[in-house]
Structures are given as structure tokens and as C-alpha cells.
Amino acid sequence: MFNNLSDKLDKALHVLKGHGSITEVNVAETLKEVRRALLDADVNFKIAKEFTNKVKEKALGQNVLTTLQPGQLMVKIVKDELTELMGGDAEGINLSGNPSVILMSGLQGSGKTTFSGKLANYLKNKKTKKPLLVACDVYRPAAIDQLHVVGEQIGVEVFSDRGNNDPVAISKAGIAHAKANGHNVVIIDTAGRLAVDEAMMTEISNIHKAIEPQETLFVVDSMTGQDAVNTAKAFNDILNFDGVILTKLDGDTRGGAAISIKSVVNKPIKFIGTGEKMEAIDVFYPSRMADRILG
Ligand code: GDP
Question: What is a biological process (GO) this protein takes part in (predicted)?
Fold first, then answer.
């Protein structure tokens, strides 16, 4: 994960990690390298610039150069800022409803259906949760089949209504079915498109208004870099969602989406997807991710 970015940051911080004396000049050089590494990872220019400015400010504020171990302190400041940029403390999902309704949103291919299954499995394994998956993609019969396959794999019931082309009605019927059958979590998988378009936005917005979910999650493919961030912004403008799910972090992703998305939409990344299997789900911890990135 993020090998290229980690290598570049490691090289950038090399001097500070105790190789050679530390001066104002090489701190400035280091920050320039850090910024370059972030840009190469597809982090938005403004965010990369703000990031290094903040690190610089903190370093000045703490009189880094006069401390006993200036290099280590600088590395710590970079790590703390990276953690902050990705979201600070980890946040869970709201499961206070009965049933708790979780609405999944995102583009087609982002990994919504796969993640819906992963989340259902994750919650089911918590014993106190009995999830129901609801298939609301009325355009692609294959998407409904896919959710049924996933449901069977993890032993979670799937509610669908083939032939019904009203996703609002299906989601409401799904919630009613959950209530009648003792499901305390409902995960609603919706239709995506290949790109943001008005019809999709109207549809997801209508579902959102009609069912008032406890939790609205936006799923995005981390391989799509800055596009991921732009898509997140478009969905957030419409849904004011509660959290982001970053998928495909097992692939050769550069890291830009993971680093930038929180500060653009001001919503936490809650989970990550790290593979196609149902078990490939992890809670997102910004500080652990920063540790991983900085090696
Ligand atoms: P949807 O159209 O948003 O419902 O996306 P899907 O759930 O159908 O996922 C699209 C493709 O991405 C499928 O081939 C999934 O197996 C794959 N996929 C989903 N999540 C991950 C992940 O975390 N890692 C990898 N490597 N593949 C994933």
C-alpha cells in the first residue's frame, strides 16, 4: 500500500532521521521533498502546500532546531500532521436505530455491492447484529444477482423486488421487511453510474430523503486519485454523507485519495476495503495509516 509514497517520504526525511546535521536549509529542502512526494501521490496541490506550511509553522513554534533531537521531532510533526489531515481519531458508524438504516452511495464499480456485503458480514460477526441487505439497483439485474451471491456467501438475507423499478419503494419495503423479521441493521445498496450525473444524484437524494438513514456512506475507489476527491465532493453536496469508504487499497494506489478526501469534504474515512474477499475490510485509523505511510 502506497509503496511509492512511502519510499519518497523516507528519502525526503532521510536527513532528519539522523543522517547529517540539521539546519534551516535542509529542513526547508526536506519540506520541499515532502511536498513533491505528496504531489506525486496525486494529492491536490493546495492540500500539499497547506500541509507543508503547517509542518513548518509547527516546527518554528516548537523551536525544533534548538531541541536535542531536532530530526526526530520534525518526523513526529510530519506524522502528527499527516494523521490530522486524514482525520484525527477513528470514528465508528451510527447503529442507534432499530433497525439502523445504512445507505450506500457511490459510482458504479466503486465497490458498493462488495462493501455492503463486507459490512453486513462484519456486523453479523458482532453477534448482536442481524443485518438485512437490500438491493436497490433497478437498472442492472446482474447487480441484484451479485448481492444475492454475496448474501449467500456470508449467510445474510437479501431483500429484492425484481420488476419493481422504484428504488424508493424498494428501500421502504426493505426496511418494513427488516422490522417484521427482527433485523436490526438494514444496508441499502443503490445503483451507481460510471460518472456523476443528474439522474443518479436525484435518485439517491430521493432515497435519502424518503428513508432518513442513520448513516449514509460514500464508497470510492482509491485508485481514482483526485477524481475520487471530486466525486466525493459532488455526492457530499447532495447527501451531506456521514463517512467515506475507501476501497481497493490493496491495489497499486498512490495514496492521494486517502490523504486528501477528509480535508475536502470534512467527513471521516470510516472503513477501507483491502481485497475482493468478504473479510477484506478494516476500520480506518488515521494514525495507523500515517505510521504505515511513513514507515
Ligand atoms: P459497485 O458497482 O459499486 O457495486 O462495485 P462492486 O462491488 O461490483 O465492485 C467492482 C469490482 O471491484 C468488483 O470486481 C469487486 O470484486 C472489486 N472490488 C471491490 N472492493 C475491492 C477491494 O477492496 N479490493 C479489490 N482488489 N477489489 C475490490
Answer: SRP-dependent cotranslational protein targeting to membrane
